[in-house]
Recover the amino acids of this structure.
């Protein structure tokens, strides 16, 4: 895989195009290939921000499954591939999950632009199911409380997402492992949208924990039995 290859999910305004971030415009202008959920909506965005010379291909709910492998192969070949939702965040009640899953299966880089929430950013690039999820905020600060917290929220039929500080991340992951085991798929994400962004999706026992974590982290826990 060429180091530059990556899939970039781009959230789009619900109506007011003025809310579209400048970074997203830069990504679209620099992308090798752009896919979108809705061509007329994407072209309206392109015209508004004077994005020229870019061909569009459509990926929507009906063709996402058969298109995902092709997109992953393009990313593996070194392409910067952007995917635009019609309105809102890709993967959240919109296409995008299957594209991410295929890239994550191959260990490819996935990013998200324009998502103002850390937990939404993490879940849409995790490769874990996005059709149903629960957000738990921060776990309790003590180990006993965390164990009860994980036992309560990590046994359902939805992806569970929580935040953790750098000071408690390592201990929190130990407590999570004691509750769900080493084979449960999780996504560990830190420094999202920053220079040293770190995202891993793997069975919990294979996650490489940072020796000296910084900042706040997002952890997504797949429902029992889910595999990439």
């Amino acid at each position: 895989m060429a180091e530059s290859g990556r899939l970039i999910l781009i959230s789009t305004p619900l109506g007011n195009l003025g809310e579209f971030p400048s970074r997203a415009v830069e990504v679209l202008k620099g992308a090798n290939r752009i896919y979108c959920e809705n061509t007329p909506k994407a072209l309206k965005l392109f015209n508004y921000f004077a994005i020229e010379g870019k061909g569009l291909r459509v990926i929507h709910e009906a063709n996402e499954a058969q298109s995902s492998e092709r997109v992953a192969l393009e990313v593996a070949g070194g392409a910067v591939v952007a995917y635009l939702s019609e309105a809102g965040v890709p993967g959240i009640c919109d296409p995008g999950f299957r594209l991410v899953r295929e890239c994550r299966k191959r260990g490819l880089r996935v990013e998200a632009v324009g998502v103002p929430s850390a937990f939404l950013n993490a879940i849409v690039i995790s490769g874990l199911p996005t059709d149903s999820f629960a957000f738990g905020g921060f776990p309790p600060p003590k180990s006993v409380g965390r164990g009860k917290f994980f036992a309560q929220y990590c046994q359902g039929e939805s992806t569970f997402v929580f935040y953790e500080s750098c000071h408690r991340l390592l201990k929190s992951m130990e407590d999570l492992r004691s509750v769900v085991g080493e084979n449960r798929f999780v996504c560990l994400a830190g420094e999202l949208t920053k220079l040293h962004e770190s995202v891993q999706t793997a069975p919990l026992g294979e996650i490489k924990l940072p020796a000296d974590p910084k900042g706040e982290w997002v952890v997504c826990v797949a429902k029992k039995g889910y595999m990439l």
